[in-house]
Amino acid sequence: MSKILKNIHSDLAFTNNLINWGKSFGRKNLPWNPSYGKKIDPYKVWLSEIMLQQTQFRTGVKYFERFIKHFPNVKNLAESEIETVLSFWSGLGYYARAKNMHKAAKIICSGGKVNFPKSASDWKKLPGIGFSTAAAISAFTVNEKQPIMDANVIRIVARQHKLIERIGSAKLQKKIFIICSKHLPKSNSDMPIYTQSIMDLGALICRPKEPLCDLCPVSECCLSFLEGKVGNYPVKKKKVFKNIKRVSWIIPHTQDSIALVQSKDSKLWENFWIPIEIQENNLIPKKACFLKRFKLPISNFIFDISVWGILCKRKNFEGGVRWFKNSNLNEKPIPSSVKKAISFL
DNA sequence: CTCCCGTCAC
DNA sequence: GTGACGGGAG
Fold first, then answer.
1. Strand B nucleotides below 7 A of a protein CB?
2. Beta pairing class for A322-325 and A257-262
3. Residue A325 forms beta bridges with which residues?
C-alpha cells in the first residue's frame, strides 16, 4: 500500500475513532448546549469558548451559569456597564476577555438589531476572538469545516505525529493546520461532535501530564505513544526568567468597610478595585500594621506583596480611596488576590 | 512550578 | 515571525 493511501486510512481511523469515543465518553449536557429540539445559541457558545480559555472546566462552568443568569443574551450584555460585567468576571482572571466580550457585544448589537457573525472569518474580526476560538464557534453554530487549533489539539497532534517544533512557532502552527485539515469529518453535520470530541480528548485523556493512553481511542495512530515517548511532546517554549516586584498594599479599614482605589495606570487589573500600592522603598504610614507577606505569580513576573492594615475610626482616609462595605464586595470588580489580602485584615 | 490562549508591539 | 503580557488553579 502506498504511503499516501496509508495516511488517508489512518486519518479516517483517527476521525472515526475519535467521534465514536466522543459519543460515548465525551462531556454531555454542557450548559451551552441546547436542550432537546432547541436551536443552538451563538451567544452561549461564544461565552463558553471565551470563559474556558485559560480556565479549568469546573471553574468556568460556575461562572458561566452566573454570567448567563445576569446577562441572558447579547443585547443585555451590550447594554450593561463595564464595571458590572467585570464584577461577574471577578476571580476568573484575564480580564481583557470580559472587556473584549463587552466591546464585541456592542458591535454585534450595533445598528439596532442582533447580528451574529455567520462564519469563522467574521467571528475572527471581533475583539478577543482569534483563529482557534473563531473556528470552534463556527463549528458549533453553523457546522463550518474549520480545524480548531487550541492547546488541546496542538498537544494531541504533536504527540500523534511527533512534531518537534516548539509551541507557538509558525512552523508548528502550519504543520498542525495541514494535519487537522485532513482530520476534518466528511460531513458538515459532524463538525460539532468532532470539535467537542477532540477538545474532550485533550482535556480528559490526552492531558498535559499523566495522559491516559490506555483509554485513548486513537493511540494506535499515535507515533509518540507507540515509541513510549508521549512525555516528549509537544516541545515546550523556552522558559523565561520571572522578575520579582516587591510592593506593599495598604488597606485602611473600619469595622465593616475597607478602602480601595481604582487601578487606572496599569494594564494589570485595569478598572478593578485594589489596595493603595506603595513601592518597596517608600514610607509605610506609621499607623499601619503589618499583616502578611505573600507571593503572587502573574504570567511573566512575581508579585511579592506585603499587606498592611490601617484601622480607622471613621471613613476619612486621604488619597482618592473609595469605601466599600465588606458585605457587598462581591458586586465589585476585585481581583482574587485582593480578596485574599482583605481576608488577612 | 506548569498549564491554559489571544493581542499587540517590534 | 517572535516574544511580552496577563491571572488563577492544580
1. 1-8
2. antiparallel
3. A257
d(CA A106, CA A47): 14
A49, A65, A83, A331: which is the annotated catalytic residue?
A49
Residue A43 falls inside a structural domain: yes
A253 and A127 fall within a common domain: no
A220 has catalytic annotation: no
Say whether the peptide bond before residue A234 is cis (omega within 30 degrees of 0): yes
Domain that holds residue A195: 3-232
Short-list A99, A89, A103, A94, CA closest to A334:
A89
Q: What is the pLDDT of residues A100-158, one digit of tens each?
A: 999 999 999 988 899 999 999 899 889 889 888 899 999 999 999 988 888 889 999 99
Footprint of strand C on the protein (CB under 7 A): A 54-56, 58-59, 91-96, 168-171, 237-238, 240, 266-270, 296-301, 335-337
pLDDT of residue A299: 84
Buried b (16+ CB within 10 A) or exposed e, A139-160: bbbbbbbbbbbbbbbbbbbbbb
Least confident of A71-80, A253-262, A278-287: A278-287
Question: Both A23 and A163 in a single domain?
Answer: yes
Do A202 and A251 have their domain in common?
no
Q: Total structural domains in chain A?
A: 2
